[in-house]
């Protein structure tokens, strides 16, 4: 059974520390539990822990080492990760050809919260089934 | 700075600005003669063997290579073949020098290696200078072209910093301000301060985007559109929510009718409408009215209406041109309305304005679905 806290667990992947911190505070104010990761590779390790899957992932596109595109591709091929909704937040254009929610930086906060609420609502319905 | 240091710096600079020519010739007397002839127009580096030429190939950017076909350790053709393997000498023009014809000599072979020609030794001064003049002119043009390319690259990096790298820290500012505004614990005064911070960060974000769009437009690039099913009503609600937080003392009234969906670039539509609604808050008095009209199945019409100061009639014809007085504010660059028009046009739509003391200022945008 997925608990309510897990239901609202969001993973944020961005190499900018202040961006992560402000995202954490913003989402915490909305009742989300947030874990942040400055590197996509570490994020994949966090996601490897199947007992605590996030209800949504917020990911930047341009990052050193493994970038957002590579992360999205890795999620696509992993059966467990494929179902997790992803919101791409980037200063570098819309990732055309990939079916994800996209928000450009600076983030339109209302839209981000709306997207997340919609996603977690969906996640709850899936969990309830 | 000591004298000797200065001397080193000067010669270094000189070497950089002067073209460098590589002379490969086994005969010291011939090398000395060539050095004398070439020195007035270029810096000469001379070596006595094919092996020595290969050793220094990567150390300089040569304007031309003069090479004897008959070297003590190799033939000139074979050496040039190997010099073509180095990135630094791959495309450098080559002139072959020859004195007597060894049995393997073949003029054609040199041309096949990309040689520009031959000079018979002892080298005739006039012939050498004529060929060098052509080579050095071409070299200079190449250098200028590379400098221009570098300038363009620097400009691209600059625009990249402006357009992209500034957006992440701005995002952090805006989200932090928003976190504070969402908390109920702030005093009215504190809320005002935080709202002002957020408002100005938003304005900065808008300016950055405008500059980037304008630059892209001036460079002849079309505004890229990522069209997807979008609802203008949703966009208006989000903008009103955002702007309402940072303008706590103002009211924005949104009216909808009918279906407001279409195939648009959501971020771009948002850019246009927040610009127009932001302007209405900035320049107008009282409530701002936003009406979204979806009764036409072919298009959605969005009107942004405010009372207060009107736009002087003489400014109306050029209001959507860049850097116009009417479209700029004390905070702006006068690019906002220009970008508005460009985005609407990119969607195949139109934007217009009326402004009278009786009915106020109304911006009307039409978005084909």
Structure description:
Chain A contains six helices and five strands, in the order H-E-H-E-H-E-H-H-E-E-H. With 129 residues, chain A is α/β, with parallel strands linked by helices. In chain A, strands 2-1-3-4-5 form a five-stranded parallel β-sheet. In chain A, helix 2 (17-28) links the parallel strand 1 and strand 2 (33-37). Chain A is globular. Chain B is α/β, with parallel strands linked by helices and 369 residues long. Chain B is 49% helix and 21% strand. Chain B has helices at residues 3-17, 28-38, 50-56, 76-83, 107-112, 125-165, 167-182, 188-218, 232-246, 266-283, 336-346; strands spanning 20-24, 43-47, 62-68, 94-98, 117-120, 228-231, 252-257, 261-264, 284-293, 299-308, 350-356, 360-368. Chain B is elongated and about 95 Å long. Classes of the chains: A alpha/beta (129), B alpha/beta (369).
Oligomer: heterodimer
Gyration radius over CA of chain A: 13 Å
Q: What fraction strand of chain A? A: 15-25%
What is the strand arrangement across the widest sheet of chain B? 2-1-3-4-5
Termini gap of chain B: 70 Å
Mean pLDDT of chain B: 85
Largest interface: A-B, 28 and 28 residues
- The count of DSSP E runs of length 2 or more, i.e. the number of strands of chain A, is 5
Q: Give me the Rg of chain B, rounded.
A: 34 Å
Low-confidence stretches of chain B: 1-15, 327-331
- Strand order across the biggest sheet of chain A? 2-1-3-4-5
Order of helices and strands of chain A: HEHEHEHHEEH
Distance between the termini of chain A: 11 Å
Give the structural class of chain A. alpha/beta
Q: H/E element string of chain B?
A: HEHEHEHEHEHHHEHEEHEEHEE
